[in-house]
Amino acid sequence: MKRPAESAPSISAAVVAGILAAATVLGVGQVIAAVIDPEAAPFFALGGWVVDHTPHTLKDSAIRRFGSNDKLALFLSMSGVMLVGAALIGILERRRPLGSGLLVGFAALVVVAALQRPTVTLWFAAPTALGAVAGVAALRLLRRRAPSRSVVRSTPPERAGAHRRAAPGTGQAGSGPTRRGFLALTAGVGAFALGTAAAGQWIGGRLRDVVADRARFPLPRTAPVAAASELPVRGLTEFVTPNDRFYRVDTALRVPTLRSTDWRLRIHGMVDRELDLDFDDLRARTAVARMITLTCVSNEVGGDLAGTAIWTGYPLADLLAEAGVRPGADLLLSRSVDGFTAGTPVSAVTDGRDALLAVGMNGSPLPIEHGYPARLVVPGLYGYVSATKWVVDLELTRFDRAGAYWTDRGWAALAPIKTASRIDVPAAFATVPAGRVVVAGVAWAQRLGIDRVEVQIDENPWQQAELGTEYSVDTWRQWSWWWDAAPGTHTLRVRAVDRAGAVQTDARARPFPDGSTGWHNRVVTVR
Ligand SMILES: Nc1nc2c(c(=O)[nH]1)N[C@H]1C(S)=C(S)[C@@H](COP(=O)(O)O)O[C@H]1N2
Ligand SMILES: [Mo]
């Protein structure tokens, strides 16, 4: 008689086995990554690689479509692909160890991907490699104990007649796999996978408790910044953006966790003296607080990838002067702890504007997702060429020698922020009562300042809006305008004029490669 173990497991049991094997890879990988680097966990190693290799057009559309939730979308699609792959592994393992082979193959790809990420060591291979060993063991074990179709259905009444005592559903009498035994094993392997994943999270958190570190972080004292005044319009963007509502854009699937006690900043390259600073060194220097509007190049016309905050930090120009920038160095290449790089013209840092090594945002230490413990903020330049979060390295070099993360992917090397204006109220496709209707929004023309903002209803002449007080040329400006609205459907348009007299262009351009342009409009129904 054939031994039951030689018959193939049912498809559903095989799928369960495959998924649990994959979960084991992730769980064991997580626990090992906790002591190496959380970025080395299989899921994040692969996700990071996907982010780095997603075509810029897709990155751009992901940001457009999901806002700062692009990571959630990636997370969900990766999970979906993994589930399918895991099921396939289970099914292929039914008769021959093909599933194990596929699992090892996948793991090898993830290891290769992990080792391609910036700033990695060979250790990055360990979590996925050891996870795969555990995963194959789990797969084999589950495969051996999985009930086959024939086992599950093998108690037809006629045959069971002779064995009336045998409990139904326990399969054949004797030593073959049983459903109950398989269920118990599934629960065990599932608990093991979850347990290792949770342990990994916990150990990782204990080893680099950045939350506690941030809670203890002393913000440097500075002269206070002037208060901002607000135009009193309901629904208008606040002048200062609260930290929890500040837009977030970065390539980090997992927010880097860098304790201030582990942080160092190296300033090197074309300098007279290399600097290697820690927070004690910084604290001996003078800090300032500045109101600055940060803007993302991926912002669409009318979009909300811009925000204004009071940044506390150390003037970058002072640090560069201390290091002594050699003649010929025109590029400040900043690097984050997770390998992101941005290339900023040296001239933009040394021309007197408030370029900062920022450590505080709106009176608190930088939120972890906004770069704790230190980031760059350079007024007038889009974030991807200036605003490196979790910054650990500044290299003085030349544009003809070095590229940066997004410029290597085709985005412009020089990226001053383009003049923009936006209508916040009335909301898109709102219905408003006829009569006096307030129209309001924000506009920005960094470095030059906003001279005026104009509003147009349908094809009527442009009207001049009232402006909020100008905080500085590096911050946005609120505007509002009273509209005597007549019934019907109307198109509202806005445009800004900068201090040099240049009217914001109406030529529509997408964000790629150096920022969107065009007038924002809104269609409103008046009753
Ligand atoms: N380390 C790191 N820093 C980064 C990025 C990144 O992907 N990684 N993205 C940049 C971009 S494109 C922008 S617009 C700003 C956004 O800063 P915020 O998330 O604090 O708003 O961060 C910049 N700094
Ligand atoms: Mo950006």
Fold topology:
Blueprint: H1 11-36, H2 42-53, H3 56-66, H4 70-92, H5 98-116, H6 126-145, H7 149-152, H8 157-160, H9 179-207, H10 210-216, E1 265-269, E2 275-277, H11 279-283, E3 288-295, E4 306-315, H12 316-323, E5 331-336, E6 341-345, H13 346-350, E7 356-361, E8 364-365, E9 375-377, E10 391-397, E11 420-425, E12 431-432, E13 435-444, E14 450-457, E15 463-464, E16 466-467, E17 477-485, E18 488-498, E19 520-526
Parallel strand pairs: 1-10, 12-19
Antiparallel strand pairs: 1-2, 3-4, 4-7, 5-6, 5-10, 7-8, 7-9, 11-13, 13-17, 14-15, 14-18, 16-17, 18-19
Helix pairs in contact: 1-4, 1-6, 1-9, 2-5, 4-5, 5-6
The structure holds ligand MTE and molybdenum atom.
Care to describe what's here?
- By secondary structure, the chain is of the alpha+beta class.
- The protein has three domains: 206 residues, no CATH class; 167 residues, Oxidoreductase, molybdopterin-binding domain (Sulfite Oxidase, Chain A, domain 2, Alpha-Beta Complex), CATH 3.90.420; 107 residues, Immunoglobulin-like, CATH 2.60.40.
- The protein is 33% helix and 21% strand.
- It has 13 helices and 19 strands.
- It has a five-stranded mixed beta sheet. Strands 3, 4, 7, 8 and 9 form a five-stranded antiparallel beta sheet that branches. Strands 12-19-18-14-15 form a five-stranded mixed beta sheet, with no helix packed on it.
- β1 and β2 form a beta hairpin.
- α1 crosses α4, α1 packs parallel to α9 and α2 packs across α5.
- The longest helix has 29 residues.
- It is globular and about 85 Å long.
- The termini are far apart.
- It binds the ligand Nc1nc2c(c(=O)[nH]1)N[C@H]1C(S)=C(S)[C@@H](COP(=O)(O)O)O[C@H]1N2 and molybdenum atom.
